[in-house]
Amino acid sequence: MITFVPLSVPYAAVGSETSVRTKHESDASEQEHPRALAYLLQMDDVRVLIDCGSPEDFVFSNSVSASTSDNHDGKAESSSMAQQREASDPTASFDLDQLKAAPLDTLLRQLAPTIDLVLLSHSSLDHLGLFAYAHAKLGLRCQVYATMPVQSMGKLTVLEAIQTWRSEVDIEKESSSSSFNTHRCLPTANEVEDAFEEIKTVRYMQPTHLEGKCASLTLTAYNAGHSLGGAIWKIRSPTSGTVVVALDWNHNRERHLDGTILLSSSAAAPGAPGSGSGSDAVRRPDLLITEIERGLVTNTRRKDRDAALIDLVHTTIQAGNSLLFPIDASARLLELMVLLDQHWAYAYPHARFPLCLISRTGKEVIERSRTYMEWMTREWATKANETIEANQDKSKPPNRGNRSAAASSPLDFKYVKVYSSLQAMDEAIPQDQAKVVLAVPPSMTHGPSRRLLARFAKNPNDVVVLISRGEPGSLCRQLWDAWNTNQGKGFAWAQGKLGEAVTPNTRVRFELKSRVPLEGEELRAHLEAEQAERDRQTQQRALLARSRRRLEADEDESSDDDSGSDGEGGEGENIYDVANEAGEPGAGTLVRKRPYGAAFAEPTTTVANGASGAGGDTNQLSYDIYLKGNASRATSFFGSKAGQEGPFGLGVRYRLFPAIERKRMVDGFGEVIDVARWLSRRRALEAAESAAADTLSPENAALSLEAKRKKAAEEEARLAAAIPSKYITEQIEVKLGCRIAFIEMAGLNDGRALKTLIPQLHPRRLVMVNGDEGTKEDMLGVLAAIKSLTKDVFVPRWMESVQIGEVTNSYTVKLGEGLLAGLELSRFEEFEIAHVRALVKGAIGAEAGVPVLETENAIAAATAAGGEEGGEAAAAAAQEGVLVELASSGIIRSNTQPASDEDPSLIPNVEHLTGRNIQATLLAPTIPHATPIPGTLFIGDLKLSTLKSALSSSPFRLPADFAGEGMLVCAPAGSTTGPDAVTIQKQSKGRIVIEGNVTKSFRSVREAVYGLHARVAGGAGGATQVGGVETQL
To answer: Which biological process annotations from GO are given for this protein (predicted)?
Structure first.
């Protein structure tokens, strides 16, 4: 059974605190919310989280409510807390029926420990903005999959957002003093790095077999368009079928991306042989999940849109004015940059007008994109290979037969200047100079785009170009509303029309948050507080040092007392200096044992030869071991020898300490191996190779920029900590005297594409999400008029549960060796199928809980060659227990159990079942009055168009044409109605009729039809109608 629940959608009811709703319940009026997409898909016992997005401000309204679990303090649950809670009760699983309507972060706090798989579709914040926070704080620790560009670009997008927010807002103070209903879900940079490192990357059209609890699932990603690496996910389950998840796809081909693979006219994915194979792979799914947010929107033609944008840029910049483009950090940034950079190369080759990008991660985004050119259009993927070859030729020494010119990449961006901050751009370019500025973020909730608006609004000739409507309630949405209001009568942006740039002359009020250095009295008070803190710490350290000295003095005195008493008793050890045994002054004098700290003290005076100076002794050497000069007086019998006496006529006993024997490594010829020399040589060679080879590689450049970005972030954090500063909020009210233009470059589908695409895919069931009420009614009306389309269409609202199918029980059995040896497997798509007729045999030993399927002959042979009677009895008891369990589950039946059409009162009690009254234990239940098993079973879904293509290719080479609906006529050229003509017709579900004379054409057609199915051999005997394929001669 499949269960689908939208956890966060753009249109949802406000103030709803009910549990998960069914499709029959009514809903309150829906309002638009910021896009933070997340959907829960449960396939049998596997829970899949599709996307994990967040708004640009990372704030979820009413994020902590009464529906939260054990964590009631309003703070996010850490990953360790979630893991401990899961480990304390591993069998606990959160029931979806208990799920209450709440913001996404609150829902994930409850669901994260129970999620088994996460799929990320695009690199924008509305698809993966909350993933790093959920991974670090909410316990979302499971398998995560995304394409390589989404993993890389998504990390840069999230880092761009959180670093900008942390430079404007004191997150720690805001979290501690914020209201109970709001919380900014902002991770740290290290948490983002760790979270995205856990993502497992896949390529387009690369089937991936999952592991662990998801071992039964096969995952495949396809090209979605819209963003670099954007994915349409195909999930295949043996029990639930095929599920295709298509969110935010684009059917149109753009400058740097091909259209989605969903349409047959779209380009193939990287490495695919053609477009047909990819589009066929996602057709006819058991469940299609797609978004219909733009069901009532008609896109503007790309040619008209680009022409209007270039004309606006050219006229404005030629007049000496500037333009501002609020843009996202990666998803749609590349398309706009490619368009403007190509225009600059054509119109302004001398770069008179600066083309600027303000982004902390802009340089790394550009370098990373160059490594993913194979994910872009087919032409660019080919050009990427040419560029690599040209760079390799350029690195070689030039010769007369070699061309030294390297191919240029469309992602070189020769005219784009990237700045990490607005201050850096102001230092390089005067503010009054005409320029084009691309600034993040697109909704102007924070960052440089919000600050630049206050500057652009004062100049009546400057233009602010909006490429999206922005989030509801954001500054960008306010500008769009002002632009839309000032359009002409009868204008509607959703009808594919381009509006005019207007001057709203309305007043806009917004806040500017920033971090500024302290000045004046605030700086003096801060410095005094820091000095007072340093003085306090100094006093504390002095007190600790004084206490330490007192303890050492007490220990020193106790050591002296112990030494004196031991000397008098004769059993202790007094330390004598016997280093000067040649009769030097001071030989044999008593010295005091050093305390622990004195072992690390520096010698006070030394001479050139290394001996102690005047007044010095061996105790002043900084060694924590006893030297040979330190000896102890031994008074026992074993401490002295005849004729060998030490000072004072007593025996001398030297201190012992561990000795390390150093062995020299030699090779087989006796040569000494200098390991350090070879290691240093190896490091030098590797450094030389990395510096000389492949210096122009995009991968190396991207890694270098990543290291520079991390170093710059650390330096910025260090400077921010060194400079006393504070966070301020300014209230800004400006009059929009500049011109506002709206040219949509969202790169998404429209209603016309939706109404064309869905019928072509022929899904067995359809789920549509993200639409408002008007869009849902329109899409339902259009799709209901299509007779060939499925009637199982679901349009769930926010937190509305959709259940599809029934609960499927899957069982694990082990195939015996005799059964495996006789199987005839036939391949169908990704599976191998065979008909099995076997008996259930109970296993003994470590695998006693797993039943074994074996043939009757193999079981008889094993019984005949059985061992002792005790072993046979144990085997029989184990087999009887397995049979009774399978019979009670309904998998097999007993001899006394009637069929389903008989009297139920005759069914025996399961408790009285034994192995004696259970018949030949077929795995599949048998029906007494059913027809015999057919000779051959054909598995597959024949498409006449596919059959036509197969007949026209080798080895058949047989022309075929359609003759009416559902009929294909195959015959040699010019004889469509002659004796060699063969017709193929699909009369009903699972019934194919082949009519014709016994000719070579008939045999070829039959072989072609059989080749498109998986043939499974069954019982003996044949029939005219075999497995649904009927041949009429």
So the answer is: mRNA 3'-end processing by stem-loop binding and cleavage
